[in-house]
Amino acid sequence: MSGTGWVVAEESLLDETVHGEVVATVLRQELHLPATDDAPPLAVERTVTEGGAGPPVVLVHGFAQNRTTWRVSGRSMVAYLAALGHEVLNVELRGHGGSRRLGAGNASAFSEYVTDVCRVVDALDQPPVVVGHSLGGGVGVGVATERPLAGLVHLAGIYTFAEANATIRALGRLTLELEPLLARSSVRMSTGWAGRILARMYALTDIAGYGAPIAGWVPDSIERDLLEERLALGFDWTSIEVWLQMSRWAQGERLQYRDAFAETDVPLLVLCGDHDPLVREVDSRACFEESGSSDKEFELFDAFHHRVHWGHVDLILGRHAPEVVWPRIAQWLDRRSS
User: Fold this and answer.
1) Distance CA 283, CA 298 (A)
2) What is the pLDDT of residue 181?
C-alpha cells in the first residue's frame, strides 16, 4: 500500500461488477486516517487489482453525498479505474459516510473539505490525480492550489455556482435571509430522507427530470434499480455552514481559491453535461478558462457528439457512461501517466 499513516480497518477480495457483464476482481480496503490535533479522522475506501501500478486516483464526492457517488452494485467507476491499474482512493469528507461514523463532525467551512483531501494527498507516496464531482470539483480546485497533483479532473464541478439557475439562486437568497437563525440553532442537514423518498417515487421523479431546475439526471438515463440504489444510499448528512457558503457563491461571491488557481499549472480536464441544471456549461467553462494550466482540456457531453443527453449524475453512473465518459477520463489519465 502506498504512503504512510493509514490504518487498515477492513480488507476483502471481491468480484465487483464494472458494467453489464464485465466483472473485476479487486482488493478493497477500508482505510482510516487517524485524528490529529487539528483534523478529525477520515474514512477512505482503497481499491486496487493485482499488479496495478498506475498513479493513484483520489475520488471526491459532492455536496451531501458519499462514496456511493462512484459505485453502486451494478456499475462501478471505482472498479473500472482499478482494473486499468490505478490505486483508487474513494474519500468520504468529514461529516459524511464512514468519516461521520468515525466521529468526524460536520465541516464548519468549505476549506475544511480541502484540508481533508490534502491530508489524503500527503499520505500517498506520489502525487495523485484528483477527480472531483460537483462540490468535490471545487474541493479539487482548492487542493490543486495547495498540493502538487499529477492532474485534476473537474467533473460537473463547482467553480462558479448557479450563474444560470435562477431557482438555486433564489433558494440561496432565502437561506441567507435565515442565516442568523440557522447559525444560532446549529442545524445539521440530512439529505438521506430525500434520497429515500426519491427512490420510492421513481416513476414521478424520473418524469419530473424533464426541465426541472434541480434535476440530477436525465430521465431514463440510469436503469431504475441502479438509480434507486444510488438515491437510497448516496444521500448523506452535511453541513449547513457549507450550504451557506454555497448560497453566497450563488449570489456572486467568488470561490476563495480562484485567484490562486489562475496561477496554478496543473494538468486539467473539465467535463460537463449538456442537460445538467446543477452545474451548467458556463460554470465549467469558467474553471477551464481561468485555470493557469498549460495542459488543459474541456469537453461538453451532448446528444449530437455523445449519443444521448447528459445530466449531473449521468456522467458517472449513466447507462452510457462506461462506454463514453469513463474511457475519456481513462485516456486522459493514461496520457499523463506515461
Assistant:
1) 12
2) 81
Does residue 12 sit within a domain? Answer: yes
Structural domain contains residue 2: no
Q: In the chain, which residues have pLDDT < 70?
A: 1-3, 183-213, 338
The answer to whether position 177 is within a domain reads yes
Determine if the pTM surpasses 0.85.
Answer: yes
Hey, which residues does 1 pair with through a beta bridge?
A: none
Quick one: which of 301, 268, 238 has its CA closest to 130?
A: 268
In a domain, 74, yes or no: yes
Which structural domain range is residue 311 located in? Answer: 7-337
CA-based end-to-end distance of the chain: 21
List, in order, residues 6 or more apart from 200 with CB less than 8 Å away.
none
**CA diameter of the chain:** 54
The CATH number given to whatever domain includes residue 75 is 3.40.50.1820
Total number of domains in the chain = 1
Instruction: List, as one string, the DSSP characters of 33-92.
Output: E--BTTB--EEEEEEE-TT--EEEEEEE--TT--GGGTEETTEEHHHHHHHTTEEEEEEE
> Of 139, 170, 175, 164, which is closest to residue 154 (Cα–Cα)?
139
Which residue reads 493485482 in cell numbers?
50
Each residue's pLDDT tens digit, 175-231: 999 988 876 665 566 655 455 555 555 555 555 555 556 778 998 899 989 998 998
Q: List the alpha helices (DSSP H) in 238-317.
A: 240-250, 258-261, 281-290, 303-306, 314-317
Q: Is 155 exposed, middle or buried (0-12, 13-18, 19+ CB in 10 A)?
A: buried
Stated length of the chain: 338
For residues 77 and 86, give the distance between their C-alpha atoms in angstroms, rounded to a whole number.
Answer: 12
User: CA gyration radius for the chain?
Assistant: 19
Give 232: exposed, middle or buried? Use CB within 10 Å, 0-12, 13-18, 19+.
Answer: middle
Q: How many CB atoms lie within 10 A of CB 271?
A: 25
Cell of 316: 458517472
